[in-house]
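F.,

This is the one I mentioned.
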């Protein structure tokens, strides 16, 4: 059963060290969060899982890590300078600003100003002269620098269509009303694939990626039956999109977008290209006077065309929240007490195993537990914790709450026969196994 409400998740995240408010000791910064010791592990595991499913499991997808600071020309020709805006209103009664579709019920209609457009991009000064002309944008999406590197990647990797470029990284949006914990924030990470295809093959590729993405979310613990597919109606489509499918998830605060999968046609490459009249662009694009690259490929008879692109774009924070919400569960135990357990998929769990000596001041038990921890750590499956509290029950409760799939207890029998107690997070069952079998056991569990 998912969490009852957002407060449950916020409180678990703070208490156990997944997520903290940023700059908290100075009162915080609105819409900005920090990931703590467990949060960074879960987040990295999620990103690695995406990267593996894109770059390693496909033979036609390359990775990229482009810069955050972006030349303004990129965001001029992409359309962001003109259109990356949200309508904003002021409430004259509470003196706060809201996105038009997010005005709280308490604000009366007559207190609201006429909506005006607000650009969501952050700017920063570049170099020592601050005269207003030497600035860069913090990218509002990772996608644009994939497009600007299209020629670099295709030339250096000798790729032919269809092929993709995948990137994970920070994006920044000056959201008018950041809210709902890490759902809508001003600094976040995106996992984006731009998949380039021959025009005419775009619809088929779009359907395929919707399917692949649903399967991937399912493997992360967000089942397909809990995702609603929203075919964005024409009047709501972004200017570049021929069709967009949003994967909507029931977050604790309501049904909202987890990932968007858009058919961006040839708009982006066409917009960033030089010699636009020679390459048969279908979309309507701004005349480009600055690009020095022809963002097109040649067909067999030598004619130029601009690939279409399918873009699955997922937010890391929204994925994190959905996964946490699905994994969160309160169970009633036989003794009437509640057990809070995070049923995270083992590959995502921030800690893969905890090794606990029965007594914290017994050198032999401690040494054996440390040896086991070090052996398991060498598997490079993720973090293994040596848990020297001397309180087994308390350690089990803590590891249930942070989603550690197994706890390994080292006791006096372990010194004689090298067996340990393996306690399973989900079933709470305990079994005795030889310490040498642990490596195989953990490998199978995490790679399942
Ligand atoms: P929304 O309509 O919720 O503002 P969007 O349609 O503007 O989202 P996209 O531009 O499609 O979002 O971005 C792709 C993905 O990036 C989204 O599906 C979401 O997971 C993530 N994302 C976008 N904006 C934010 C934000 N402010 N905070 C956290 N994640 C975000």
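My design for it:
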């Amino acid at each position: 059963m998912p969490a009852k409400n957002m407060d449950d998740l916020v409180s678990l995240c703070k208490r156990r060290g997944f997520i903290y408010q940023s700059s908290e000791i100075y009162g915080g910064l609105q819409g900005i969060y920090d990931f703590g010791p467990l949060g960074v592990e879960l987040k990295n595991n999620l990103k690695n899982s995406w990267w593996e499913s894109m770059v390693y499991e496909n033979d036609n997808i390359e990775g990229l890590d482009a810069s955050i600071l972006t030349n303004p020309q990129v965001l001029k020709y992409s359309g962001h300078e003109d259109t990356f805006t949200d309508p904003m209103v002021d409430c004259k009664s509470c003196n706060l600003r809201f996105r038009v579709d997010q005005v709280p019920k308490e604000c009366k209609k007559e207190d609201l100003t006429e909506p005006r457009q607000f650009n969501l991009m952050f700017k920063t000064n570049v170099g020592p002269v601050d005269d207003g002309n030497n600035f860069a944008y913090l990218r509002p999406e990772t996608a644009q620098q994939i497009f600007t590197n299209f020629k670099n990647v295709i030339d250096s990797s000798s790729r032919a269509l269809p092929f993709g470029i995948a990137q994970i990284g920070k994006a920044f949006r000056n959201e008018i009303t950041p809210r709902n914990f890490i759902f809508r924030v001003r600094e976040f990470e995106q996992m984006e694939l731009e998949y380039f295809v021959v025009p005419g093959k775009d619809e088929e590729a779009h359907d395929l990626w919707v399917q692949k993405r649903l399967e991937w979310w399912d493997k992360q613990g967000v089942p397909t039956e809990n995702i609603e597919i929203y075919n964005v109606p024409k009047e709501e489509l972004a200017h570049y999109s021929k069709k967009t499918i949003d994967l909507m998830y029931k977050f604790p605060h309501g049904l909202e977008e987890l990932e968007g999968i858009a058919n961006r046609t040839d708009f982006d490459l066409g917009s960033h290209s030089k010699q636009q009249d020679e390459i048969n662009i279908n979309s309507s694009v701004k005349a480009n006077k600055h690009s020095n690259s022809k963002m097109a490929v040649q067909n067999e008879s030598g004619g130029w065309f601009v690939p279409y692109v399918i873009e699955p774009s997922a937010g890391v924070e929204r994925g994190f929240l959905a996964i946490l919400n699905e994994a969160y569960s309160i169970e009633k135990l036989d003794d009437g007490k509640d057990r809070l357990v995070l049923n995270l998929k083992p590959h995502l769990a921030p800690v893969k195993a905890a090794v606990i000596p029965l007594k914290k001041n017994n050198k032999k038990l401690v040494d054996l537990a440390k040896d086991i921890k070090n052996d398991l750590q060498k598997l490079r499956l993720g973090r293994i914790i040596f848990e020297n509290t001397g309180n087994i029950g308390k350690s089990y409760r803590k590891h249930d709450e942070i989603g550690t799939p197994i706890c390994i207890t080292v006791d006096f029998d372990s010194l004689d026969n090298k067996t340990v107690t393996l306690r399973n997070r989900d079933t709470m069952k305990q079994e005795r196994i030889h310490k040498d079998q642990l490596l195989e056991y953990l490998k199978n569990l995490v790679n399942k």
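Residues 6-68+145-266+307-324 form a domain with the BirA Bifunctional Protein; domain 2 fold (CATH 3.30.930.10).

Talk soon.
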